[in-house]
From TrEMBL:
Record organism: Halospeciosus flavus
Domain of life: Archaea
Keyword Metal-binding in annotation: no
InterPro entries (UniProt xref): AAA+_ATPase, AAA_22, Cdc6_C, Cdc6_lid, ORC1/CDC6, Orc1/Cdc6_arc, P-loop_NTPase, WH-like_DNA-bd_sf
Lineage: Archaea, Methanobacteriati, Methanobacteriota, Stenosarchaea group, Halobacteria
Name of protein: ORC1-type DNA replication protein
Cdc6 C-terminal domain sequence ranges: 303-386
Binding locations of ATP: 61-65, 209, 221
């Protein structure tokens, strides 16, 4: 028997080209956005104060990749002119839900391990002072990129403070510009007028890609990632069309091609349209599993109970039946169950998230009004993900209920 690795039919020349972290040397199909970005960054090349820039667009439409590209090009330009390069600080704000946390995140990026600030407990002004000290120590022009800036919510005074730091005498030798990135347009709308005026000094909107644009981006990647003749134009078109129809996200299109490549490598080394259809199903299944993992502990118990009952009864499960099994399941696993009204909320949430369907019944005076639920997920899939929750075996279940 040969080495199992030799049995694979490799389709990739360089699979990393289809990875999220890959930095393409060319940005395609974003000419207008690059122009607008260059315009917004231009004062820096003239030794003037930087603008603040706000980028908005749905997920996967190139906000990050274009920003990284533009910052690289900016420094290349400055180096060519023998001017001082700018310093960039990239802060993802995903789990940072206040100005305090973002400021601490920034300080800690700039400090050694032993000198980190605590996540809570200091007065905000102390944290801001530390931040200004760190920025002043770097000097020159500093661009602070706040990715997923919407996480900061309404606690946005850092976004007021930072751009005004120099005007307010907090910084002397340093110029700071903020680049905020978001895929939530409501965030921009809810900003206080003063913050909006400064942060959104220059705004660049990234629209979803259409199928033609995605085809260009994908073709360029495929030429660098895949062995010739392991795919054809129809496969590229299919990935582009599926992603354009769903989200307009280049990430989704690239992911489809990568997953297709993985499947083909385990088969006969050719990516076909059928394989891309399979890849799409795999990715969707993966997303469902991730979403189940993200449910609250009660959401998980409720979903497991509902999917088991859906399988046992064929669907249309009444709330009180779900409750009975849910309560039992919680106790079996050592979790305190919610009261039945709160379980109803959990079931409504599951329906809203697409995990379950809810049916409203009204049988007039005789039967009254009631709801039934049905799980859209097979109990096997749910149980595969929720390995921590034990489902008692059927005989035991029948006896107990
Ligand atoms: N115009 C483009 N040319 C080449 N690659 C692109 C282009 N646009 C997006 N990509 C690729 O698509 C993927 C997603 O892009 P990116 O991370 O920039 O999206 P985003 O808008 O920042 O999304 P999110 O809001 O989810 O962070 C990356 O792998 C990126 O390299």
């Amino acid at each position: 028997m040969g080495n199992p690795f030799e049995e694979l039919n490799e389709v990739f020349v360089n699979r990393d080209v289809l990875n999220e972290e890959y930095q393409p040397d060319e940005i395609l199909e974003r000419e207008e956005e690059k122009q607008a970005y260059a315009g917004a960054l231009r004062p820096i090349t003239k030794q003037n104060a930087p603008n603040n820039i706000f980028l908005y667009g749905k997920t996967g439409v190139g906000k990050t990749v274009v920003t990284k590209y533009m910052l690289r090009k900016l420094n290349e330009q400055l180096a060519a002119e023998e001017a001082d390069e700018v310093t960039t600080i990239w802060q993802n704000c995903r789990s940072l839900t206040s100005s305090y946390q973002v400021a601490v995140g920034l300080v800690n990026q700039l400090r050694e391990t032993g000198e980190q600030l605590p996540d809570t407990g200091l007065p905000s002004q102390t944290v801001y002072r530390s931040l200004y000290e760190e920025l002043e120590a770097i000097g020159g022009t500093i661009l602070i990129v706040l990715d997923e800036i919407d996480a900061i919510g309404s606690d946005d005074d850092l976004l007021y403070e930072l751009p005004r730091a120099r005007a307010n005498g907090k910084l002397e030798g340093t110029r700071v510009g903020v680049i905020g990135i978001s895929n939530d347009y409501r965030f921009r709308e809810q900003l206080s007028p003063q913050v909006k005026d400064t942060l959104c000094e220059k705004e660049i909107t990234f629209s979803p890609y259409d199928a033609t644009e995605l085809r260009t981006i994908l073709t360029h990647r495929a030429e660098r990632a895949l062995v010739e003749d392991t795919y054809d134009a129809a496969v590229i078109n299919q990935c582009a069309a599926l992603a354009a129809k769903d989200s307009g996200s280049a990430r989704q299109a690239i992911e489809l091609l990568r997953e297709g490549g993985d499947i083909a490598t385990e088969r006969d080394g050719v990516i076909t349209e059928q394989i891309i259809a399979e890849a799409q199903k795999n990715i969707e299944r993966g997303k469902i599993k991730d979403a189940i993992k993200d449910l609250t502990v009660h959401g998980k118990h409720a979903l497991l109970a509902l999917s088991q009952l859906t399988e046992d009864t064929g669907g249309d499960v009444r709330t009180k039946e779900v409750y009975q099994f849910y309560e039992y399941l919680c106790e079996y696993n050592g979790t305190d169950p919610l009261v039945s009204d709160r379980l109803r909320d959990q079931l409504d949430d599951l329906a809203m998230l697409g995990f379950a369907s809810k049916y409203e019944h009204n049988e007039g005076r005789r039967g009254g009004r009631y709801n039934t639920y049905e799980s859209n997920q097979a109990v096997g899939v749910v149980q595969d993900v929720l390995v921590d929750i034990e489902l008692p075996d059927e005989r035991y279940r029948q006896q107990t209920l």
